[in-house]
Write a structure and sequence with these properties.
Layout: E1 2-11, H1 15-26, E2 31-35, H2 42-46, H3 48-66, H4 81-104, E3 111-113, E4 116-120, E5 123-126, E6 130-139, E7 143-145, E8 158-160, H5 161-164, E9 173-177, H6 181-192, E10 196-200, H7 212-225, E11 228-229, E12 233-240, E13 243-250, E14 253-259, E15 261-264, E16 268-270, E17 304-306, H8 317-333, E18 346-349, E19 354-359, H9 362-365, E20 373-379, H10 384-388, E21 395-401, E22 407-414, H11 417-429, H12 434-438, H13 448-463, H14 471-474
Parallel strand pairs: 1-2, 1-6, 2-3, 6-17, 8-15, 9-10, 9-15, 10-11
Antiparallel strand pairs: 4-5, 5-6, 7-16, 12-13, 13-14, 18-19, 19-22, 20-21, 21-22
Length: 478
């Protein structure tokens, strides 16, 4: 049995863990990084990057479909699924390689391979070969695709998003379970690449939207292109040869169809349930996730910190990196605990149009005890640059505080929304007022002119004085 004594032990070598490792070492702490799986991070291997590669291929195919609307008529379109997936895997492996090279450059004595479990608050057992006595510990174990009980043990046709990016060819058909970010991105991309896609959602949600007006618009816009069944649940699924026979229902209706794959895209679950947390001496929430301070990543008043998808606070890569920096800094200089930089929340689904939320969400602003807020909006149906590009679909809603005029946040489904989201999130973080934002330059013709229209509407509503939000808007629906 090998025994190590270290200042800081990091469990997990994903984005949060790697950043925490560097931060703790920068504080002068003797640090080890523990990993049981392959190196490469979720984002590079099965998340952000390969999904965008698939989406890029889908956008190329979609532009050929739209070309006749501009008077441009391409010849017969042929989608080579083998070539599409070969590029996805090749470029994915390139991104993964950059991460692996970084890990390889770390000192060998700083890396421990195997699965770590707490045996007491300061001791980790890695498999059965290494015992680590750590003064401080950072949990950065990431997350895994949520698996649905209704699809347990059906057969090889039931997959998760992790499996998609190892395909050698595009499938004939896929049923996507879930209309969150992952399901919508992959579902729309596959449909645009000629795969028969059906999307099934237990409720009426679309990505991370909570604004009922934007949600209604998003559902309508996406349903114009995608076969989406909201308020539907899985009634039965069975493997039959190379296909899965899937029966789903809505109210008293049932629909049965065959698919090559059924893709579970109902979110991700923190990887915290096989760490021996019952021995760590920290409080857990109802789902078994450690309770922590989001400003410091510290679990209670303990020497243990949690970062990235493992804490399930904001499970996106930029947040994982920020979590890791805060956790690593504080673990490295413990007991000198300091709040770290928390940026304005920003989340995007790379559908077309993009679905983006930033700052305070509509749901958050409607919570009891919050200051009253005004809303401004713009539809992109008649927005100039959007019509020029034949991308004139979507809705942007912006929020401002009555008392101060400060800009609070926005929700949207919008063309080039990923760029609008950055522009507006910077304004939130800079604590700008709506009037200050309207003093900024807007070129012509650009999509951002739609932002100005929404801000003008918001400024006019702020000038009218406080009023109650329409209660019919508070509960999202489709």
């Amino acid at each position: 049995m090998k025994k190590l004594k270290v200042d800081v032990a990091i469990i997990g070598a994903g984005t949060a863990g790697l950043v925490a490792y560097r931060a703790a070492r920068a504080q002068g702490a003797r640090t080890v990084l523990i990993e049981s799986g392959v190196y490469g991070t979720t984002c590079a291997r099965v998340g952000c990057m390969p999904s965008k590669l698939l989406i890029a291929a889908a956008e190329a195919a979609h532009m050929l479909h739209l070309a006749p609307g501009f008077g441009v008529h391409p010849g017969a379109v042929r989608i080579d699924g083998v070539a599409v997936m070969e590029r996805v895997r090749r470029e994915r492996d390139r991104f993964v390689g950059f991460v692996v090279d970084g890990v390889d450059a770390m000192p060998d004595e700083d890396k421990v391979r195997g699965h770590a479990r707490f045996t007491d608050p300061h001791t980790l057992m890695v498999d059965d070969h290494t015992e680590i006595d750590a003064c401080r510990i950072v949990i950065a174990t990431g997350s895994s695709p949520t698996r649905l009980p209704a699809l347990d043990n059906v057969g090889p046709g039931v997959i998760t998003s992790d499996d998609v990016f190892y395909w050698n060819d595009l499938p004939r058909s896929v049923a996507v379970i879930g209309t969150g970010v992952i399901g919508l991105e992959i579902g729309q991309a596959l449909a645009r690449l000629g795969v028969r896609v059906r999307m099934v959602a237990r409720g009426g949600s679309v990505a991370q939207l909570s604004d009922p007006v934007v949600l209604k618009t998003a559902a309508r816009v996406l349903c114009e292109e995608l076969d989406i069944h909201f308020q539907s649940r899985i009634l039965r699924a069975e493997q039959d040869g190379d296909d899965v026979v899937l029966t789903t229902g809505r109210h008293d209706e049932a629909h049965t169809e065959r698919f090559q794959y059924v893709l579970q895209a109902a979110g991700r679950t923190p990887n915290v349930h096989d760490l021996g947390l019952e021995n760590a001496g920290i409080a857990l929430d109802g789902n078994g996730v450690p309770l922590f301070d989001p400003r410091t990543m510290q679990c209670g008043n303990s020497h243990i910190f949690i970062a990235g998808d493992a804490n399930h606070e904001r499970p996106v890569l930029p947040e994982a990196a920020d979590h890791g920096k805060i956790a690593g800094d504080n673990a490295g200089r413990f007991p000198d605990i300091r709040p770290g930089l928390r940026r304005t929340p920003l989340t995007a689904a790379f559908t077309e149009p993009n679905v983006v939320t930033l700052g305070a969400s509509y749901k958050t602003l409607c919570a009891p005890g919050r200051s009253k807020f005004a809303v401004g909006q713009v539809s992109f149906e008649n927005q100039g640059r959007s019509r020029v590009m034949l991308q004139n679909k979507g809705m942007l809603r912006v929020y401002g505080e009555y008392r101060t005029g400060r800009f609070l946040g926005a929700e949207m489904i919008a063309p080039r929304g990923e760029h609008i989201g950055h522009l507006l999130s910077w304004a939130v973080q800079s604590r700008m007022t709506v009037d200050q934002m309207l003093e900024m330059p807007f070129y012509h013709p650009v999509i951002e002119e739609g932002v100005r229209t929404a801000l003008r509407d918001l400024a006019a509503n702020l000038a009218k004085g406080e009023s109650d939000i329409d209660p019919d808007e508070v509960e999202p629906g489709t």
